[in-house]
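*** Query protein ***
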Amino acid sequence: MSQYPWFDFDQVDFVTSDQHFGHARISELAERPFATVEEMNAELARRWNEVVGPDDTVLHLGDLALGPIEESVGLTAHLNGRRFLVPGNHDRVSPATQSRRAIERFAPLYEAAGWSILPEVIEGTRRGYRILACHYPYSADSHGTDRHTTHRPREDDGVPLLHGHTHTRDHGPNGHQFHVGVDAHEFTPIRFTVIDEWIRSRPGIETRLQAATQEARTVLADLVGGETPGSDALFYMQGYNELVIVLEELLDALPHDEQHE
């Protein structure tokens, strides 16, 4: 069953993170090739609008803007596309670093600039494959130790995870993780088709429906073919409960148009 708030990844055309609009020191800290913050802001916006069209949908995985926040978030109002934001630790709507009162104060600023704010970890399917997205990876950080661990996905159970945060130059995949930050992708949002190819290339990858079907078959085989212990009623009640769970997962994994046939 789903562990995190559900999101429709099939609607997304581009994914990105960690622009740090308005952050005067990020070029020094992340070794970016910009002489001034104004140059960086202009180039990030240019590269965004060069690839993202007005009708495209973009999933942003956090650390959008810093500095004088009204000014830096205001810069993003001119970015193309329908835009979703999964908050990162430097965003003023981040539960990891901001109080509830601060989030309530700053959320209208982001929304006025065209952002729809999402939870810190989201789950969904993309072309039938289960996927997670979060600002933070399962493990790794831009510092020596992992920060904000309670705001990351709880465990790496093999589900593909899209993330930012690390500012590494690695181009994307690392085990079950895929780094989408601009420092690794020429300071430009990446097409989600790149993610699609990575997911399909993973060894042993199954769609959510395939995994749910296999689990249901295993539970049925254990229930029908297993030896019953002394208390038959307790055995069958336990088996019934397990069967209900896997059938709910199986039905939930069906495409929405098939659920109503």
